[in-house]
Amino acid sequence: MELWYTEKQTESFGITAKIRETLVTEQTDFQKLDMIDTEEFGRMLVLDGMVMTTIKDEFVYHEMVAHPALFTHPNPKHVLVVGGGDGGVIREVLKHPGVEKAVLVEIDGKVIEYSKKFLPEIAGQLENSRVEVIVNDGFMHIHDHKNTYDVIMVDSTEPVGPAAPLFERGFYQGIFEALKEDGIFVAQTDNPWFKADLIQKVNRDVKEIFPITRVYAANIPTYPSGMWTFTMGSKKHDPLQVDETQIPELETKYYTPRLHKAAFVLPKFVEDLTK
C-alpha cells in the first residue's frame, strides 16, 4: 500500500508527495504539526496542512530570506528572526561573522523541539552562543523592542492562524520602530500565481512606511506554484545599489553575489503587482 501526502494549495490544485513514514503528528497549542519523511524531498515539516520546509529544497528559502538583506546592510550586528522555529534562517544569518547576536522569536515551541529532533541539518545552529531563542509572540516582541535591531526577518507561515497578524500594516509599522535608523526588514510574501492580492497589499503597506521597498523572487519547488516572493523594506540602504563585486562568497547552494541583484528582476506580471 502506498501513502501520499497532498497539500491543497487552492481548492482546485495541490502538490503530492509519496510518504515513507509519519514521524510526528500533533495538535499544538497553536496549529496542527506534522513531520513526515517523503520519498522525493526527504523529511518535511507541515503546519496546518502547509509545507513549511523539506530537507531537499530548504536551502533556497532560508538563504534568500537571510542574505539579500544582510548584504544590503553595511554592518548588521543585531538581527531578529520572527517565526522560523526550524532554525534555517538562523543558520544562514550566522554565516555572517559581523552578526554579534541573532534573536529567534517563535510562538510555537513545538516547532523548535521537533525541528531539533528531526531536522538537525536545518536546526543545528539554534544552540549557538550568538543565538537567543525566545518562545513568545513575535508581534509583542517587536512592540517591546524599539530601535533595537539592524535587520528583522519575518519567517512566517501563510497569513492564517497565528501568523495572520504578521501580514498587517500595524506589524510593519512596529518593525519600522524596532529597527535602528538605517535598518532593513524582509518578509516572505507568498506567490504571485495564487496570492497576487496579498503581494499587492503587503507592497502597498510597506511602501507607506519605508522609503525603499523592493520585491524579489526565488524558485522553491515545494511551495505553491514554485515561484516565491519576498518583500524588503529599508530605511536607507537600497539592495539594487549594492556593489556585487564586494559581496564575499559564502557556503551557499542558491544565493550568489551575481544573484543578489538578479533576484529583483521580476517577470512583468509580478512586477505589475508592485506598482
From TrEMBL:
Its EC number is 2.5.1.16. Residues 2-235 form the PABS domain. It catalyses: S-adenosyl 3-(methylsulfanyl)propylamine + putrescine = S-methyl-5'-thioadenosine + spermidine + H(+). Spermidine binds at residues 62, 86, 155-158. The keyword Transferase applies. HAMAP family: Spermidine_synth. Catalyzes the irreversible transfer of a propylamine group from the amino donor S-adenosylmethioninamine (decarboxy-AdoMet) to putrescine (1,4-diaminobutane) to yield spermidine. This is Polyamine aminopropyltransferase. It comes from Paenibacillus gansuensis. The lineage of its organism: Bacteria, Bacillati, Bacillota, Bacilli, Bacillales.
